Amino acid sequence: MYRLETKIDVNSEEFKSNKEAYLKLLNQYKRVLKTVKNGGSEKAVKKHKERGKLLARERIDLLIDPNTPFLELSPMAAYGMYENEFPSAGIVTGIGIIHGKEAVIVANDATVKGGTYMKETIKKHVRAQEIALENHLPCVYMVDSGGVFLPDQANVFPDKYHFGRFFFNQARLSALGIPQLSIVMGSCTAGGAYMPAMSDETIIVKKQGTIFIGGPPLVKAATGVVVTAEELGGADVHTAISGVSDHFAENDVHAIQICRNIFETLKASDKQILDIAPIEEPFYDPEELYGIAPIDLKKPVDSKEIIMRIVDGSKFHEFKARYAPTIVTGFARIMGYPIGIVANNGVLFSESSLKAAHFIELCCARKTPILFLQNITGFIVGKEYERGGIARNGAKMVHAVANANVPKFTLVFGSSNGAGNYAMAGRGYEPRLLNMWPNAKISVMGGEQAAGVLIQVKQDQLAERGQTMPEDEVEKLRQSILEKYEHEGSAYYSTSRLWDDGVIDPVDTRKVLAMGIAMSLNQKFPEQQFGVFRM
Ligand code: COA
To answer: Is residue 294 in contact with ligand 1, taking CB distance under 6 Å?
Structure first.
């Protein structure tokens, strides 16, 4: 493979000022992230530690193999909502390596409202299970939760992807032979009791873990009997009498060690074999991404400048370099793993869609995972293009992306708008991971376009009645739409609502993608089957 050659002058004023602005943006993000990772209030953290318990992230650190990374998912969930009373939505999820095996870890943070589940907590838990399912990864649930956050019950309890889905997922994961382990390290109440009960093996911590369908207050109200939590569902009861739990642990550290011991006994997964090469650092320093990543999304960025700072040796075997240049396609390696890359380099035309669809077919035929690098305002519009069949050709790309049976990964490094989001493996297209850079923005269209459309609609309505819209009202409407889109389009807004799996530092992109590819190899890629392409 040939090495790409940069056209960027890292000593230029433009590069330097972009880098300065980018670092400001990134550092702001990192400051917020640090606060969020402190978990609940100081008082709650103190109370938790005084009980001899480890914090959720400390527990995970001990569970995973020493000196291995933990890919935390959506740590900023629920940020900017509920007066920030739910840092990380009260749950830590991610992918870590336990005894050499990749696993999904789900850990309640009891310092956040007793580890109870509100809307985003549920979404995060379900997403973690989805990742386990798609990638055939064992799951560890570190349970320390009061169950449903009762004031939010309408957003948490009854619907298809609410609390009940956890146990449905557990049953389905189990049926597929995916191991699930629970460590009960605190409360595990009501429906939550099914979490350990439906796991392959369960560990419970002495005088700390409790499992019951109805807690002491409910038992008293229903039967009049006064019973302590320990008598009702403590470690002793469940390991010696009820059989709900299998292993008795003295404390958190002991419980985690037992869980690691169980991992030693799990069978190795039937892996997809890829042709892996030795890891090579990019020839161009990934830190240069700070000077290149688009802060002003109107400014075009050559996506090859991004690619060469992510891939091994900055080497890229480009496919159809001279054809439809608004989409860049080609093969490369990330930390030794082969990857096909589809990157936006302008709007999507008919030719770009066909080129991308062809390239996706190549990746599927070669069983090579695909990375989508999104910076897309959408498909081209206009009479000429409609007549040229842009809908028909765009549909081919959407079709190829949806049906591609190799793992897909999506990184939004600029904008993500319109049907371009779909064609470039947006959330609805089930990429194994979808990450954003802090400068990235996502919305149905840009704020200016949305304002333009809405003003036009309003003016047309008024014109039908023989009226016109005063200029100051037009301006007021424009401003309100622009502000709304600016706010709702931000990476913070997206990640808070789990539209993505996390906002990442551009420099970490290689690591995140490599972990993603590694996890996706835990089962063989299925045979490819495409449907009907409209020709
Ligand atoms: N819904 C909403 N909020 C809850 C809650 C629930 N189910 N359980 C606890 N909380 C809140 C508390 O109000 C408190 O909020 P605050 O920080 O704003 O004061 C916070 O979580 C911590 O609760 P607290 O009781 O002080 O902490 P604890 O560590 O001593 O006990 C629990 C935690 C979860 C064991 C205990 O609160 C409890 O048993 N809750 C009820 C659990 C239950 O019956 N759930 C049924 C769900 S279906």
So the answer is: no
